[in-house]
Amino acid sequence: MALTRIHHIGIAVEDADEAGKLWGDVFGLQVALDTELESQGVRGVIYPLDNCEIELLQPTRSDTGIAKYLEANGPGFHHICFESTDVAADLQAAAASGMEMIDTEPRQGLTGMIGFIHPHANHGVLIEFAQPPADAPQHAGPGGDASPHALHHMTVAVHDVSAVADELAGKYGFAAREPFESPALGIAGQFTDLGATAIELITGLPGAADGPLQRQLQRGEGMFMMALTVRDAEAAVAHLREQGVTVTDANAGAFISPRNTYRTRLRLSEA
Known about the structure:
- The protein is an alpha+beta fold.
- Helices cover 22% and strands 35% of the residues.
- The chain folds into two domains: 3-131, 2,3-Dihydroxybiphenyl 1,2-Dioxygenase, domain 1 (Roll); 150-269, 2,3-Dihydroxybiphenyl 1,2-Dioxygenase, domain 1.
- The protein has helices spanning 16-26, 65-73, 87-96, 161-172, 212-219, 233-242; strands spanning 3-12, 33-37, 42-48, 53-59, 76-84, 107-109, 112-117, 127-131, 150-157, 175-176, 180-182, 187-194, 197-204, 222-229, 254-256, 266-269.
């Protein structure tokens, strides 16, 4: 496949203006695109980082996929998008490999020509391929020590880390790192890289105390947390607390309360 990186993380929201206060006013990201696709009944607001984008998706009609997703699940992570240099060929290759498809031919999306693979084919994760136009502007994340400027990794909760790492390598060309265990956190995991971006696969260790990860896996596999890179984690924590955001200390990465992030689990850490 002609996949190069994680292009963006899609987040479903009921009100992009309200949710955008977190990404713009609190985090300091700038809007690169705010547009509506009338044919799909969705408004998209895009905030760029150095190596990725955050895409807020707000339904503009009640009969759309995003509207139905929100009704069933509430706000939160919606999909992971991989950038492609040939989206038509990549969709055909995915279909030929037996994956359950939503799109077999490209269609116009917010970020160029796109197509989706059903979450049944990817452990509960909705996957998008996107081929941006050749003249797409190049953006970067904000400056300053306290603002997140890059995607560090996207975390996906799965039952069998090794098997899913092999799938990501075989299906999409991810390169797997060495597995790890963290008894202190009660998790086992493995990072897999696509270009300068990464997906972290995690599962609970036997006997680990009940927590958000275990509850997620009881509901099913899927997108769990997004880790963003900041230049100064302590400065970022201080800034967030000044803004009234509940956040842990920066020692092992700062975890932000989902109550402040429209149910998206976020972690900030220095690279």
